[in-house]
Amino acid sequence: MQDLSQAVPPKTLSEWHNPSSRTDVIRDLIHGVDRYNPSNLSFMEDYLASQVQDGSYDLLANLAILKLYQFNPQLSNPDVIINILLKSLSASVNGSDFNLSMSLLREPAAILHDIESDDARFMILIPFLTHLHDLIRNCRFAAFWSEFNGGSEGATILRAAYLPQHPHLIPTLRVRFATSIASSFSRISLIRVQRWLDLSESDINDWCASVSWGIEGSDAVIPKNGDNDVKAGVVRENVELSQLTKLIAAAAY
Amino acid sequence: MADPTAFYEPEDDELLSSLAVPAYGVSAHAFHDEFQHLQELEQHAYPPSVAQQEEEHLAALEAIPQDVKRFLILFHQAILENDLPSISNMYESGWTKLTTAHYANSEWPEAELISPLVQNDQVFLTLYRELYFRHVYARLQPTIDDRFQSYENICELFNYLLNSDGPVSLELPIQWIWDMLDEFVYQFQSFAQWRANPKQKTEEELELLAEAQQVWSCYSVLNVLYSLIQKSHIDDQLKAEKEGKSPEEVAELGGEYGSKPLYRHLGYFSLICLLRVHVLLGDPTLALQTVEHVELSNTAFITRITACHVMAYYHIGCAYMSLGRWPDAVKTFVQVLIFINRMKQYHTRSYQYGAITKQCERMYALLAICTTLSPGPSDESIMAIVKEHYGDQLSVLQRGGEEALATFKELYLGACPKYLTVNPPPYEDPSALEVYAQNPPVDPTQRHLDLFLSEAQAVSGVSTVRNLLKLYTSIDASKLAAFMSPDETDGEDRVLEQLMMLKAASRTYARGQGMGVLDGEKVVTNNLDFTIEGTMVHVEETTAHRRYAGFFVRNAEQAMRAFNTIRSSPLPSPSVRRPQSAVPLPNSAIPPKPSATTIANGVPASDGAWQQVTKRQVRIVG
């Protein structure tokens, strides 16, 4: 389970490439040659399903699934691919997770060809998710929600077939967007937050409280986090003694 | 090799049995045996014709230039004796010289032809064929037979190395070991590219491709590399070395195979090759994970083979680019380029100089991309070269807009790795192949280009708003919107979105001191920063003080050089000086080293003075 009570970016990447939710079995698997063994596939897919269920996230394990599909195209499972893309879509606003997943995939028609399937939903969803990712990547949050909730074929399939299985998708997306907002804003109008996070007027107060944002009049007040309270600074040169060893050595003789 | 999934088998023996000569190879051998058998039969039936054949063979052997024959005999001798200096010398210079003299535009003699010269030593002939095919790939156009035979030969070689009873006693120079593995991956890459396009293939080629699916397949290549890595326990060895274990402890971890230099080096270079293969297959996180334990500092083993050093850093940099970690990519490229520039005088004569220069040129182009996407201080000397080579492109990139996107594309296509697809066209199914040829899938390089461009567009799109912000200390978003997109109704939202992207573009993760390759900590990469209060944007610019350390160090170094030059120049000739000196010094009184005081025409510049100057500078700097 990822921490959704704070809208600040993590300080390091250790949780990204080595999440605490990862078990030793999975760790050994993705660090060894066993990751190429197709008989581990169902085990890996179960791990993905548990991520979908409990809201945890392990990109490297999910990429290992796509790697197995890359080498064993006949084993590809369109549903699993969509789940992986949805997980990476909600992983971050500016991260490369979605593109890393995409770079292991071929075009949807080729994937379907190898499993002799004509899953029309898959053909529609891949470009739709790519489009959603573009909107997120460009911080176009209002546009994202109107696409996501819109009447297009992709949105309809997504909401009908996938959203019910992804209880954490929307809350996670909201916190990701809020993280972007919190890096830039120290204060922002509630109406805008509502629009960017797709929240109703009745929910907005509770939601703000859940990420410890304060409310003053019609504005949300975002706590200082190092990014939204920048001060002009002067960078002083800082020379370590170790950088001067050569010079000192030359001086010593 | 029949079972393509075999290489993850944990059992060592089983693991390696999968490395056995591929099915294609076996059948070829069977064919070969049959052929020999037939030949023997023929020998009995028609003795004259065999004699004639032998004569032809002898004549062909006779036709081989004398110096080549002598070279091969000595080469064989050196390899038998594991005489590394001689092998190195013949491998690096002898072979190249003879190639230029006799085989600039043709193949070296076939291995079968020269086998009498080397007592039919199969190991030597396998090594010889490895060089033979490498020459074909480098200088000539390889035919499909060359490609297949080269694969078969290299499999035989790895088979010999991995599946003999215990480690083999062969020793090879590290340069050769690297070149061999590098060539292995190169030929795989070249084959995959050639195979990816079913057009313009002859009937025979199509037939062979349909039959031999496993030849140069991704699985077989990964199989070889992983087997070499596992056999040598190189990961455990490198980990132990990083932990500061003694060489004996490390050797013990290496085991029967890994403690031998040949296997250790095979394992080590396999890691680098694997890094490259993973990047080519579009898996940068796995690529970086592969070199987790490899020491990458400027004094590490990796720097001993320049080509390997460059290859590794290029691919690590590319992997960081795919992760959007521009500062890490910049750091990686700069680090290796500085090294290469310093070493230039030593490797200009190397036979690989051309290839290395080309790879470096690519990194300069990628640096132009990365430094545009994440501007920040970088090594001045390297950036000067980037500006010299890509000055025009850089100014277009920094201007932004459509034109910049086209330039990103051009630079990226010229400098990115040649990405591969794992899955070959369906050669085994002619009708499917027809469909495939008419409607080919998107080229993998094109797919990676698209992913890169979407990222580049997002990051570079913020340059307009950044330039506007520079002019203000605080400004309302609605006013910015009026400048940027006066016609749009939701202009204010768009500006705020752009500002959030600008914020994101100036924050990234970078690998800190002592961190793993995938690790990173949050860093701020831009000096222009801001906070938005409601819709009011407050701009804060961080200014950097002038840097003095570099200036002082450079000048101190220059003074040092001048001083050394003076110190080492000979004394003015005694015939000029003697008349001036009142008391002629006896010979023994002349100090062995010319002292600075006597040289510098009366200006005291003793060692003591030099010390003082430097100390004062250090104080200022510190």
Describe this structure in words.
The complex is a heterodimer of chains A (253) and B (622). With 253 residues, chain A is mainly α. Chain A has one domain: Serine Threonine Protein Phosphatase 5, Tetratricopeptide repeat. Chain A contains 14 helices and 4 strands. In chain A, helix 3 runs antiparallel to helix 4 and helix 4 (59-71) packs antiparallel against helix 5. The termini of chain A are far apart. Chain B has 622 residues and is mainly α. Chain B has helices at 12-17, 23-45, 47-63, 66-80, 84-102, 111-114, 122-139, 144-163, 174-196, 203-211, 218-232, 234-242, 247-258, 261-280, 284-290, 306-322, 326-347, 353-373, 380-399, 401-415, 430-438, 444-460, 463-469, 477-484, 491-505, 549-568, 574-577, 596-599, 607-621, and strands at residues 474-476, 507-510, 521-524, 528-533, 536-541, 543-544. The longest helix of chain B has 23 residues, at 23-45. Residues 1-31 and 577-622 of chain B have low confidence and may be disordered. Chains A and B meet through helix 4, helix 6, helix 11, strand 1 and strand 4 of A and helix 11, helix 15, helix 22, helix 25 and strand 4 of B.
Strand content of chain B: under 5%
Order of helices and strands of chain A: HHHHHHHHHHHEHHEEEH
Main beta-sheet annotation of chain B: 3 strands, antiparallel
Question: Which oligomeric form is depicted?
Answer: heterodimer
State the distance separating the first and last CA atoms of chain B: 63 Å
Secondary-structure-derived class of chain B: mainly alpha
Let me know the CATH homologous superfamily of chain A.
ARM repeat, domain 1
General shape of chain A: flat
Named at the architecture level, the CATH assignment of chain A is Alpha Horseshoe
Main beta-sheet strand count, sense and barrel state of chain A: 3 strands, antiparallel
Number of strands of chain B: 6
Strand order of the largest sheet of chain B: 1-5-4
CATH class of chain A: Mainly Alpha
What is the strand arrangement across the widest sheet of chain A? 1-3-2
Measured between the Cα atoms of the first and last residue of chain A, the distance is: 61 Å
Task: Tell me the number of helical segments of chain A per DSSP (H or I, 4 or more residues long).
Answer: 14
- Could you tell me the radius of gyration of chain B in angstroms? 31 Å
